[in-house]
Amino acid sequence: MFNFLTLKEEAFGLDINDLSLKIAKLEKKRKGFVLTSFNETKIPQNIVDGGVIKDEAALTEIIKSAYHLVKGKKINTKHVVASLPEEKSFLQVIQMPKMERKELNLAVPLEVENYIPLPINEVYLDFQVLPPVKDYFNYLEVLIVAMPKKIVDSYISCFKSAGLFPIVFEVEGEAIARALVKKQNNPSPLVIIDFGQNNTNLIVFSGKSIRFTCSIPISSQQLTTTISENLKVPTREAEKLKIEYGLVEKKSDKKAEKVSKAITPILDDLAKQIKKYLNFYSDHSSFEYLLPSAEIEKIMFCGGGSELNGLAEFMSKKLDIAVEIGDPLVNSVILKKARNIKNIPSFTTAIGLALRDVNNYD
User: Fold this and answer.
1) Do 314 and 340 share a structural domain?
2) Where in the sequence is the domain holding 252, given as residue range(s)?
3) How far apart are CA 346 and CA 188, in angstroms?
4) Less Cβ around it within 10 Å: N or C end of the chain?
5) What is d(CA 149, CA 305) in angstroms, rounded to the nearest whole number?
């Protein structure tokens, strides 16, 4: 959301979180899309913390470098569709009386004050009217997204200093859903878990829209840290062990058993947190009863942490719901080499942002 210009200009997706920056550039072809450019760059600690930019000069240099050193085709546009941190956003679906767009423009900001914990003059606000689930309802469903101005302004400052022009900002959940939800429509509630390096985002997508988001302070990086501490190995080796073994125990391999035992308590906690928020959503949602099936169909993991061996099976048992690893290429036909990118699930947000450009979303 947060449109600063129309999307007539060619653009690329750029996803920033506390520990990494990812770029994805798509080009529309007759049979779908081609991933022409991509890149991933690590961000040192304390440059971005909890989605807040702490060192604009350092982040500007990282953005410049990542842009100029992309793999594949050189990017010839300076226009960016960029992510904003989920943990700093306020997203809500509200009901409004049926009215014209001009009237909504005046009414929504007044109504939003009842939902967000900041004064309306301290946030950037955007909204969109959702497609009706049933045409005979006498109200509109409106998705509102608000973000503190100081957060957005700091990202704008970094992009401009890097010589780039942000044309749209989106919270991560919107981009993730665009990449993972087939045809942007799911008749039953779908839960998406973005298991990232620095935190976990939970997204509920129902019907044709996001319905609920929250941030969980559990991360893939915590798994690496606990392996390092329990096995008394350096962080770099712990990361390799996490990738190699994950939750797959091998009776003949004591190291695999130790890795699994070290990370299981953290993943147990993650499962409990997911259950807690899904119960909260179930108790407070007035939407699902309108759908053919109110039961959660499945849980879909994405993000760098989703590549953990045995994660889907582990979470499926803990949550008693079908769990799968999301495919960020489900809404696009992309060259085979894109599927050979080792950590393609970690590019989910960047691909979703890039899809907004090539599909010319408003």
Assistant:
1) no
2) 183-326
3) 25
4) C
5) 30
- Examine the domain organization and report whether 264 and 318 are in the same domain: yes
What is the SS3 assignment for 288-350?
HHHCCCCCCCEEEEECHHHHCCCHHHHHHHHHCCCEEECCCCCCCCCCHHHHCCCCHHHHHHH
Give me the CATH number covering residue 261.
3.30.420.40
Q: What is the pLDDT along the chain (362 residues), one digit of tens a residue?
A: 555 444 457 899 999 999 999 999 988 777 677 788 999 999 999 999 999 999 999 999 999 999 999 998 999 999 999 999 988 888 888 889 999 999 999 999 999 888 888 889 999 999 988 877 666 567 888 999 999 999 999 999 999 999 999 999 999 999 999 999 887 777 778 999 999 988 899 999 987 788 888 899 999 999 999 999 999 999 999 999 998 899 886 666 788 899 999 999 999 999 999 999 988 887 766 654 445 456 787 999 999 899 899 999 999 999 999 999 998 887 765 554 555 566 788 899 999 999 887 665 44
Q: Both 74 and 191 in a single domain? A: no
Answer yes or no: do 230 and 263 share one domain. Answer: yes
Whole-angstrom distance, CA of residue 234 vs CA of residue 189: 41
